[in-house]
Specification:
about 15% strand; about 675 residues; alpha/beta; globular; eight-stranded mixed beta sheet; endoplasmic reticulum; five-stranded mixed beta sheet; metal ion binding; 19 helices
């Protein structure tokens, strides 16, 4: 069906070099093939004379792209192939993209600066802003392997308010040469597989970041609604797609099949207006509203079809069988409807709810093409949490990610690595960090202890540390900043990390119980100190509270267990601006980690037992560890909450009222029947 053509151009770096190498390679191959054919005609007695230089073919270079050119193309096709209109139509990544720059500097994207006097629509500006705010962006063109034009070609509908006029003398009608094309509503005939990218059509009001979550909050069983089949859009009274959209009127029954079409399309729409023209208006996006898309898209490439399996989220039909669609939809079993509806919510939140996600998905698809040896597979793209949060550079094995344990039948790690963040010098043998070392080392699940030394003083001598049954490794933090506690250190060999502040007070029993809980929820943060967020309607901003209430949305990393992949994600996914803020304030790193994990999992953390106090009260008020007593500490955390929410584009934190306690906890039974009996005495 016809839709507004929205697209932006992505140019491969060094296009001229690629062009020369590409055609040069074709000439060599053509000559070699010719030599093979000649070899078959030679007789053993009379070999052809050998020439040191290969003879050059007189065929045009375009014709050399196909060895059997003369056999399969008509004279008209041959003429058309030599025109600029067809230039680059056979482009694929292997022939029109310079991989060498990406191999040298990694996958970096450069946006050409906007020229003076050139106009850019709000939608296209959002696209460029999303690129410039991503981890792929570089301001140095010599480091880039992908280039994006600042020319706004997003909407080429001349009647659209987003249409940019007077793009100089460029004919955007449209010879793209060897450039990639990221376009909405792209026809399969003109789509170059694994080179172009089909993107979704979005309005100018589409959120730049974040976006609303899907509307499916609870699974309604059976999953039936008042309306079975709904359509709201333009009829296209004349031109391409008009026949199918005009036929929608015959399917409409005004009961459970409601198909409304407006005729306001084109300047002369009133000349063709009739009684079937419905009111104009825009409905909610189909995916966001948990509606199952029924797609009649003969000859059109579906959005992100290279990675998304639309058969798991949509009903795909044939335009020629339009009148059979209602009966087909009615025949779908309710279990299938529920599964389709759930998948629409995942796809919406993972790839379509904001301009930023659309842009990042496009870039990630291109990156996967370049680095095929670590590219994401279909399971990653089509299963929670989706391709944007699963960085293949971390591991090629899905069992190394906590999200796929259940699907693969992988058991969570049986041991953990404790990482203790130390910021004060080791002066006394009675300091909390030494007590903590002994308690943690006695855990039956502890594999090793890492002391991250972020103190300004030199490392203590080895004999200052207590003897423990597990190895204790002391490493210096990178630049002695807060974010260094979440670095993906190679010395961490277990999947599970027990993150601790140096003044945390935990018993061996508490450590054991928290770890056994984490083994049942390996994708979440599990721990003791809980905090919460709220919306302050008076100040119109997010607030942070440490009050003891019946719900929480954060578990602080001063005493928490989580999967080590989150260290990698924290370091490589989050922008430098947020990490710099954390380092400058020496605060909020625990809040940022909770934001990240909740954004990935769409789930709250898990608090264990009712312990309120987890800090050692004897810490000196002048030490860096006593930052909790700093009057600015709380205000800084309020500021962090809003800064983080702004970058994520939404509030990812989720409230929970669940607390997990040991079996028989506080029950009036014999203490000998309780496995974690020591917890009740604390």
């Amino acid at each position: 069906m016809q839709a507004k053509k929205r697209y932006f151009i992505v140019l491969s770096a060094g296009a001229c070099l690629v062009l020369l190498f590409y055609f040069g390679g074709l000439q060599v191959r053509a000559t070699r093939n010719q030599s093979r054919r000649e070899d078959r005609l030679r007789s053993p007695e009379q070999p052809w004379p050998h020439f040191s230089d290969n003879l050059q073919s007189f065929l045009p270079r375009e014709q050399l792209a196909n060895e059997d050119y003369n056999m399969h193309l008509s004279p008209r096709q041959k003429r058309d192939a030599n025109t600029s209109l067809y230039k680059g139509k056979k482009c694929r990544m292997e022939s029109c993209f310079d991989f060498s720059l990406c191999q040298r500097s990694g996958f970096k994207v450069y946006v050409y600066p906007q020229q003076k006097g050139e106009k850019i629509s709000e939608s296209y500006q959002n696209i460029l802003s999303a690129i410039e705010g991503s981890r792929f962006y570089t301001s140095d063109p010599s480091q880039a392997c992908l280039f994006v034009l600042s020319l706004d070609t997003l909407d080429r509908d001349q009647l659209s308010p987003q249409y940019v006029h007077n793009l100089k003398s460029k004919d955007l009608g449209f010879d793209i040469g060897q450039a990639m094309l990221a376009k909405a509503s792209i026809g399969a005939e003109n789509f170059r597989p694994h080179f172009d990218v089909s993107i979704p059509l979005f309005s100018k009001d589409h959120p730049r970041t974040g976006g609303e979550r899907g509307f499916l909050k609870y699974n309604t069983i059976p999953p039936f609604r008042k309306y079975m089949l709904v359509f709201k859009g333009k009829r296209y009274l004349t031109g391409i797609g008009s026949d199918t959209r005009n036929a929608l009127y015959h399917v409409h029954n005004a009961e459970d099949v409601v198909l409304l079409t407006t005729c306001k399309h084109g300047k002369d729409w009133q000349k063709h207006k009739d009684g079937r023209c419905g009111p104009e208006g825009a409905g909610l996006p189909c995916l966001a509203a948990a509606c199952v898309p029924v797609m009649l898209s003969n000859g059109w490439e579906l959005p992100f079809s290279e990675v998304i399996d639309w058969n798991t989220a949509a009903v795909i039909g044939d335009e020629r069988l339009l009148l059979q669609i209602p009966s087909t939809v009615r025949s779908i079993h309710q279990d299938k409807i529920l599964a389709l509806r759930q998948q629409t919510q995942f796809l919406w939140e993972a790839y379509f709810s904001s301009v930023e996600k659309i842009v990042l998905t496009t870039l990630e698809i291109i990156q996967d093409r370049i680095f095929k040896h670590i590219s994401r597979n279909s399971l990653i793209w089509n299963r929670h949490p989706g391709g944007l949060f699963v960085l293949p550079q971390y591991s090629a094995y899905l069992g190394d990610f906590p999200f796929y344990f259940a699907a693969l039948g992988v058991k969570p790690s049986s041991r953990f690595t404790a990482v203790i963040h130390a910021v004060t010098p080791l002066i006394s043998q009675s300091q909390p960090i030494l007590k903590l070392l002994v308690a943690v080392s006695k855990s039956q699940y502890c594999a090793q202890i890492i002391v991250l030394w972020n103190c300004d003083k030199p490392l203590p001598a080895k004999h200052r540390w207590p003897a423990t049954p597990v190895p204790v490794v002391v490493i210096e933090g990178e630049n002695k900043v807060m974010s260094s506690r979440f670095q993906p250190y190679d010395t961490i060999v277990t999947d599970a990390i027990l993150s601790l502040d140096e003044d945390t007070v935990l018993s061996t029993t508490e450590v054991d119980f928290a770890f056994t809980v984490w083994q049942s929820f390996p994708e979440r943060i599990v721990g003791y100190p809980a905090r919460s967020h709220f919306w302050d309607s008076n100040k119109e901003r997010w607030g942070y509270t440490s009050k003891w209430t019946n719900d929480y949305s954060m578990v602080l990393t001063g005493a928490a267990i989580y999967h080590r992949y989150y260290h990698y994600l924290y370091t490589n996914y989050l922008p430098v601006s947020l990490k710099n803020m954390v380092d400058q304030l020496a605060n909020c790193e625990d809040i940022l980690m909770n934001f990240l994990v909740s954004a990935v999992t769409k789930l709250p953390p898990i608090k264990v037992t009712q312990k309120k106090q987890y800090k050692e009260t004897m810490m000196g008020q002048s030490s860096r560890a006593s930052r909790w007593a700093d009057p600015d500490h709380f205000a800084q955390r309020q500021t962090c909450m809003n800064k983080f929410a702004s970058w994520f584009g939404t509030m990812p934190l989720i409230h929970s009222q669940m607390r997990l306690d040991p079996i028989l906890f506080k029950d009036q039974v014999s203490i000998l029947r309780k496995k974690y009996r020591d917890i009740e005495r604390l």
